[in-house]
Amino acid sequence: MKLTKDRVLALRSGDVKAFEEIVRLFYRQILFFVNEYVKNEEDAREITQDAFTKLWEKRENLDADANLRAYLFTIAKNMALMSLRGKRRIMETSGRIGLDDISELHAVAAYDPASMYSFSETRSKITEAVEAMPEQRKRVFLLSREKGMSYAEISEELNISLKTVEAHVSAALKSVRKSLNEVGITASGAIISIIITLLIGVILR
C-alpha cells in the first residue's frame, strides 16, 4: 500500500477509512522513530497514538501536494521532545542521543526511502546482512523490526531471556550498520536503527 494524493484528499475530507489506511502504513515507522527518543516502549506507543490523533484533528489543513509522511514524523518528533522535557529526562536521553543526533533525526523525519540515491544498493546490503545472520538472530531481528514486537514479546514468543533478545538485536544492528557503511552511509547507531526500520518493510514484504 502506497500513500497517494487521493488518499490524502480523502483524509482531508474526513474519510475514516483513509485515515485507518494511513495509520497502518506509518504506525510501525513512527513507533520506532519515537522510541529512539524516549527509550520507553509504553511512552512511545502513547506518543505515536497522540501523533495520529493530532493528524486527524489537523486533517482539514493538510496540503495534498505536501509530504504527509514528513509532516507526521515532525508531529511525532515534537511530541517526543515535549514528553522528554515534561518528564525531566533530557539529560538522561542526551547521553544516548547527542545534540548532533537530534539535528540528524530531524533530517531523517523527511527521509523518503524511494527517493534515496543509493536506495537499491542500500536495500541489497541490508538484505545481505539479514540473510547472513545466524537463524536465531535473524528471527529475533525480524520480529523486532518487521513485526514491531517488544523485547518482552519476543522473549515470550521464542522462550529466551530478555538479555538474549537484547544481545541478538544489538549484534544484528552492528552487522547491518557495517554493511551500510560499505555503501557510504555512516551515522550514529540511533540514526542507522531508524533507517533500517524505515527500509525493512520495503525490503522484506
From TrEMBL:
An example Gene Ontology CC term for this record: DNA-directed RNA polymerase complex
Protein name: DNA-directed RNA polymerase sigma-70 factor
Keywords: DNA-directed RNA polymerase, Membrane, Sigma factor, Transcription, Transcription regulation, Transmembrane, Transmembrane helix
Native species: Fulvitalea axinellae
GO BP annotations, alphabetical order: DNA-templated transcription initiation
Organism placement in taxonomy: Bacteria, Pseudomonadati, Bacteroidota, Cytophagia, Cytophagales
SUPFAM superfamilies: Sigma2 domain of RNA polymerase sigma factors (SSF88946), Sigma3 and sigma4 domains of RNA polymerase sigma factors (SSF88659)
Stretches assigned to the RNA polymerase sigma factor 70 region 4 type domain: 125-174
Family according to the record: Belongs to the sigma-70 factor family. ECF subfamily.
Origin: domain of life: Bacteria
A single MF term (Gene Ontology): sigma factor activity
Segments forming domain RNA polymerase sigma-70 region: 23-89
Membrane-spanning segments: 183-204
InterPro entries found in the cross-reference section: RNA_pol_sigma-70-like (IPR039425), RNA_pol_sigma-70_dom (IPR014284), RNA_pol_sigma70_bacteroid (IPR014327), RNA_pol_sigma70_r2 (IPR007627), RNA_pol_sigma70_r4_t2 (IPR013249), RNA_pol_sigma_r2 (IPR013325), RNA_pol_sigma_r3/r4-like (IPR013324), WH-like_DNA-bd_sf (IPR036388)
